[in-house]
Amino acid sequence: MKNGNPVIKSVWAALEREPLINLHRFPIQLDMSDDGALLLEGDVGSVAAKKRALEIAGAMPDVRGVVDRLHVAPAEPKGDGAILDTLKTLLLDARELKNCTLRIMKKGQTLTVHEAGGEDASGDIQASVTDGVVTLDGWVISLSHKRMAGVLAWWVPGCRDVVDALEVLPPEEDNDDEVSDALSLVLEMDPMIAHPDQIRIHTRHYVVTLDGLVGTETEKSRAEQDAWYLFAVEKVINRLAVSR
User: Fold this and answer.
1) Count of beta carbons in the 10 Å neighbourhood of residue 48
2) 176-242: CATH number
3) Residue of higher predicted confidence among 3 and 14
4) pTM for the complete prediction?
5) What CATH architecture applies to the domain 6-72?
6) What is the pLDDT averaged over residues 21-40?
7) Phi, psi of 17 (to 5 degrees)
8) pLDDT digits over 180-228, tens only?
9) Residue in 182, 145, 190, 187 with CA at minimum distance from that of residue 164
10) Which of 60, 88, 110, 164 is 20 to 30 Å from 38 at the Cα level?
């Protein structure tokens, strides 16, 4: 980093101290506007790294706003069409979203792939993908539905970012219990989590703590990732023990 701005130097130093962020493998470009807004741009290694970078930048004195242009470097790059096809399948297969209408934006056209009408309708979701970034528009009936759709988008191979613009209707007040409930549903849905009932979730001020027992290190890491994927989660403390 060659910028001589003292605020940018302080942010960079703080990012270097964060163990979830690897600036040597994934350098982040920092720039500050005249009004004090800080721009973060580049690829990062995980959703956790992205969220921590934004939190660190926003907490710095003299930073009056943060412009997020960070994306997660995918393990296996995919084209937008392939990402959208996989996302469509995941959303259609999710039991909790069965009563949601699903539309996809493909080649500039909106296609309805599932119609859910009547009083039991629980949402109308429109999904699109541009340069690996998934955008979810429309509405759902609960914050759990919103969070679940966002996690499903993050699960898609090749996804670089998720813009979860789903509106909750009627509006619902968010809280720690909502986060815990949503994560519990996500862990039950996740095929990589063998025994979700053995994982205890505690959320306080949007910081999620995971306790309990899992079978493998891969499962332990996946449960933590699922928590980071959730909308509004600011930190994850992983205390899961591995049985073998």
Assistant:
1) 22
2) 3.30.1340
3) 14
4) 0.92
5) 2-Layer Sandwich (3.30)
6) 93
7) -80, -15
8) 999 999 999 999 999 999 999 999 999 999 999 999 999 999 999 999 9
9) 145
10) 164
